[in-house]
Amino acid sequence: MRGKRASDCLAMLHFPLSNELPQDVFLFGASCAPYAKGKDWPIEEWEQDLKTMKGLHFNTVRIFAAWDRIEGEEGVFDYSKQDHLFDVAEKQGMRVILNFGGLFANLGGLYPPRYLVDANRCQIRMPSPSSPTERTSPQISICPDEPLYRRKAFEYMERTVRRYAERSNLLAWMIWNEPASPMCYCPHSQANFRAWVKAKYGNIEAVNEAWGTEYPLAYRDWEQILAPTGAGVLSMWYDWVRFNHQRLYDTMSEITELTRRCDPQQRPTTANLVYHLAGMEGESSSPRYGLDVGRVGQSMTVMGVSCYTIEHLHDLGPGYLTAYKLSRLRSASIDEKRRMLVLETGVGPNLRMITQPQRLQTFWHLIAHNTKSILLWNYRSRLSDTQVALFHLMRYDGSPSERALYMGEFSAMLQRNAALLNRVYPGREAAILTLEDQQIQLEPLAGPHRPLPYQEVHDSRVGAYKLLWDLQIPADCIAENNLDEMGQYKLLLLPMCENMTPDVAARIRRFVEEGGTVIAESPFAFRDAQGGLQYAAPAFGLEEVFGCRTRDREGWETSPVIHGPDGDSKAYFFWSEYELLGGEAVASFAKGTAAVVKHRYGRGTAILAGTEVFRQYERRPQEAMSALLKREALASGAQPTATVSGDGDSIEVSRLSGEGGLLYVITNHSEKACTCRIKLRDQASTWTEIQSGEPFAIDQEITLQGKQVIALSSTTPSYS
To answer: For residue 349, what are the contacts with CB-CB under 8 A and spacing of at least 6?
Structure first.
């Protein structure tokens, strides 16, 4: 990776970061020309476009510096379009976010320059070992491990950063658009993989031992090692996926380091992670996509998001699923306040047309999850190719559409309340362990020939989040990047944790010892990081923490009924009966063995259920088991933002506080009206509904229309 170790980049990003963003305005705007693909509308119209934007209360634009369009001939650079946009934006007082780095799976823009393509000077990406080694069409993707490509791309990016670092209206550097890292089997990637393996294991004998579990291996030379094409040998496959994730993180970290070296003002760096990939559901967005949310979050100074909730194929879902994905992304931000920048969200027709109530509700949901910018895709329609008259905000000729007018009014409201919105943040009450390595370990064990598809396995995490969402307990996600933050929470949920490491086990032990409550589901901690079976579970000393152990699991077909304090329930898919080692059975199988064990350990509490209770909560909830889980979650001391009674199943109450004051965002995620009573955690002498500017009485029954949002502020709260 150009001689740069991941540890070097990580150390650089752990330096104090100011991430200065404007406080007097809420960043609201759109992506506009110049773009990275498709034909731009005439440059002569851009100044009028930005005047119109200004009239709509927009204040920020996102543009592209596409490498293939700027360096059409080797060594000849044409930045005239970007220069012009910066000039007209400055006249209108508009800020600019410049996307100068990668796009999708490509290191330097969406397409490489023709001078690299036409002469076959670079290695194209090989999705399999049998892929063509030379281009077969004009549109190609070059392997990001190709040395010449990397050198030329970084030279271009440095030139671009130095050119625009002096621009006063530059707000932030966008280092990658919707980053991804598909696997490549070309000679350069194979060589880098061998170097990665050598650095990890040190000697070839250790590789043979680690990988020789499925069948004996006898590598004698590093050059014999080839990347696997499937998960036949799990330990080998795990390392190949981990290497692929590390490659994307290293590259993005290097681009951030470049901006810090070349930008005297040290502006923030960001990249728009695709929001639905935070859920990792489905084959196309499994760990094979190459995106480690937590690690990539460390490669930029403030998390960026690409969020479509209605318009795309993968994006439909209930409110708690959207909230879960946003929480995963927010939790991965290394910004001090864990702020996020929404750098792309849809506004026009695509597979589905988003309605005004849906659009405004989504805006508010983003704000409730700590978003401090909203940039729309797309300001005007493409003039050619695949996105003509898709996603566009304005009418074809650039004049305002009805949707542009109501979004402009929404932005005006945000500007009036910017001092509040920019200075309040979600609190920390509960967290869910969402390690990327656990996804890597479980993904190849799921699928059509396995017990469960990966989406259903992953629903353990979704169910854990939904449990807290239903209780109005705000939830964050803990991955490898923020394990040190575990102690800041009162409650920790452990879904989908079949694999365990000594380090993570020690952290869980310390969390409970120091007074935290942890709730885990079975199968739990019965394999190590490489998939090795342990003789008893939970392993790695966690049997002392949870006060129990098991040595087996069976399928639901043989499961007895579970008797609990709130009635009977069933196992979900697997079930395990536990031997007590100091813990107490708070629910038992009909045969008398422990089904749910609770144990006081140190100053805290550990609870382990003998089936996949979080997956069950999402897929086929059992009333008695759900009641037990909710009671233990509330007993942890994690504070709900509110209590909701009546017809409130679709209601989410978000609480943000800080030097700006106090903000509650009450969202009806349903298309239908609902009537309920809401008691907020905080009592205040007066509440103001900031969209209307009018006083609001929350201490009475209220009716929220479909997709309605009530946003309440107070500068005189009486904290409860």
So the answer is: 389, 390, 391, 392
Q: How far apart are CA 115 and CA 105, in angstroms?
A: 20
Strands lying side by side in the sheet with 661-668: 425-426, 651-658, 661-668, 709-714, 688-689, 694-695
Whether the model pTM is above 0.85: yes
* Lookup result for tokens 């004996």: 216
Contact 437, 529 (CB under 8 A): yes
270, two tokens: 């960001």
Closest CA to 319 of 431, 462, 473, 478: 462
> Helix, strand or coil for residue 645?
strand
Phi-psi group of 671: left, alpha or beta (phi > 0 → left; psi -120 to 50 → alpha; rest → beta): alpha
What is d(CA 594, CA 585) in angstroms, rounded to the nearest whole number?
5
Mean residue pLDDT across the chain: 93
> Would you give the DSSP letter of residue 388?
B
Q: CA torsion sign, 399 to 403 to 405 to 408?
A: negative
Question: pLDDT at position 119, please?
Answer: 80
C-alpha–C-alpha distance, residues 487 and 221, integer Å: 45
Query: pLDDT tier at 140 (50, 70, 90 boundaries)?
Result: confident
Scored b (16 or more CB within 10 A) or e, 410-438 reads bbebbbebbbbbbbbbbebbbbbbbbbbb
CA dist 581 and 569 (Å) reads 24
490-526 pLDDT, tens digit per residue, is 999 999 999 999 999 999 999 999 999 999 999 999 9
pLDDT of residue 118: 85
Q: CB under 8 Å to 714, separation ≥6 — which residues? A: 661, 662, 682, 684, 685, 686, 687, 688
